[in-house]
Design a protein that fits this description.
Radius of gyration: 13 Å
Structural class: mainly beta
Strand content: over 45%
Number of strands: 11
Shape: globular
Number of helices: 0
Helix content: under 10%
Length: about 120
């Protein structure tokens, strides 16, 4: 059974940092691309960052230069390092897996499995 388990969310002040983790189970991690999405109340789920099986990365304009996605295929884990956090980064963050390692996809409908989400709140 495929499972994606996020952790690391919480409350942080503006300008602070958080590191989200996504532990993967039940599939060959190195054969998959991984993505992070977020959804704020009343808004659609949006792309944040993605990483291919070989380590190529992509970011949304709103998080470029502040967030960093990484993965360790031996540990079946992906991370999202979030720095210089802003109140507008407040959302539920989701880890997602696309069952194809060779590309980076930006659309929600391209991903095959999703985690349960972890809340990130940026507030003073």
């Amino acid at each position: 059974e495929v499972q994606l388990v996020e952790s690391g969310g919480g409350l942080v002040q503006p300008g602070g940092s958080l590191r989200l983790s996504c532990a993967a189970f039940g599939f060959t991690f190195s054969n998959s691309a991984m993505g992070w999405f977020r959804q704020a109340p009343g808004k659609e789920r949006e792309f944040v960052a993605a990483i291919s099986g070989s380590g190529n990365t992509a970011y949304s304009d709103s998080v470029q230069d502040r967030f960093s996605i990484s993965r360790h295929n031996g540990k079946n884990t992906a991370w999202l390092q979030m720095d210089s956090l802003k109140p507008e980064d407040t959302a539920v963050y989701y880890c997602a897996m696309e069952n194809f390692a060779g590309r980076i996809s930006y659309g929600v409908n391209k991903y095959d499995y999703w985690g349960q989400g972890t809340q990130v709140t940026v507030s003073s």
